Amino acid sequence: MDFTSFSTEEMIWLGIGFFGQSLFFSRWVLQWFVSEKKAESQIPVSFWYMSLAGSVIVLAYAIHKVDLVFIAGQSVGTLVYVRNLILIHRAKERVKSG
Fold it and tell me: Do 52 and 82 meet the contact criterion of CB atoms below 8 Å apart?
């Protein structure tokens, strides 16, 4: 692949895609670090926020590239991450209200 033939816009979108993918991957590093620190498997709330942010960014890149495989995969994932965050926040509200 010859990157010198890419336009500035294509290079920006490539950077966006790599940023989203890096954010999406780093959630696993976070989960691993937290689990090691607590000496048990843990999924911190920040994992779900990183999942959502990375997924939305990769979804935007996939839409730009018109990649139906990634659009389908990231769309479903995004819904799951939003739902998990809703469930987490509802559970916290139930605990607060007694």
Answer: yes
Going by C-alpha positions, the residue among 5, 22, 3, 4 that lies closest to residue 61 is: 22
The token pair at 92 is 């916290």
Which tokens go with 25?
Answer: 């991957």
Q: For residue 95, what pLDDT band results from cuts at 50, 70 and 90?
A: confident
Distance CA 19, CA 25 (A): 10
Amino acid code (one letter) for 46: S
Residue 36 makes CB contacts below 8 A (sequence gap 6+) with none
pTM (predicted TM-score): 0.86
For 56-86, the pLDDT digits (tens) are: 999 999 999 999 999 999 999 999 999 999 9
